Amino acid sequence: MSDKTGTFDSAKLAGGLNMVFRGYAMIFDAMAEQAKLLETAAQGTAPIVPEEQPDSNTPPWEDAPETAVEQDAPKKQMTKQEFLYTIQSKVTDPTARIPADKVKALLNKHGSSSLSALPPEKYEAFLYDFNRL
User: Sign of the C-alpha dihedral, residues 13, 14, 16, 17?
Assistant: First the structure.
């Protein structure tokens, strides 16, 4: 790097700095790609991990389908405990003031004599009607 007189070889120094800054540029380019991937994944338009596209110059987030992530995931069905807790918390809320006869009419509409006898596949429809009271 230096000769006997204490001077530096400017070509070697420039070459080394050039290599370092190219490395930084590669790191920043990769970070920018990852930031774009995360941004589009947060919007629900692309997967977080892109599929391999070795022959394509197009980034994977530009080829992503326009479907929402929620559509692919199966809907979790509410458990009986969650259902009963939801109803109980709304019935006992003093600001809600839901009359018992209206709840009974809703149960009859959904083909049940009590909340605990209501089949799990009817929870969502019952809650929809219940929330409209």
Answer: positive
Beta-sheet strands, E only, within the chain: none
Q: How far apart are CA 15 and CA 114, in angstroms?
A: 81
Q: Which residues pair with 8 in a beta bridge?
A: 2
Tokens of 91: 């019935």
Query: What confidence tens digit (pLDDT) does each residue in 3-29 have?
Result: 566 777 888 888 888 888 888 888 888
- pTM flag (> 0.85): no
Cβ density class 83-100: b for 16+ within 10 Å, e for less = beeebeebeeeeeeeeee
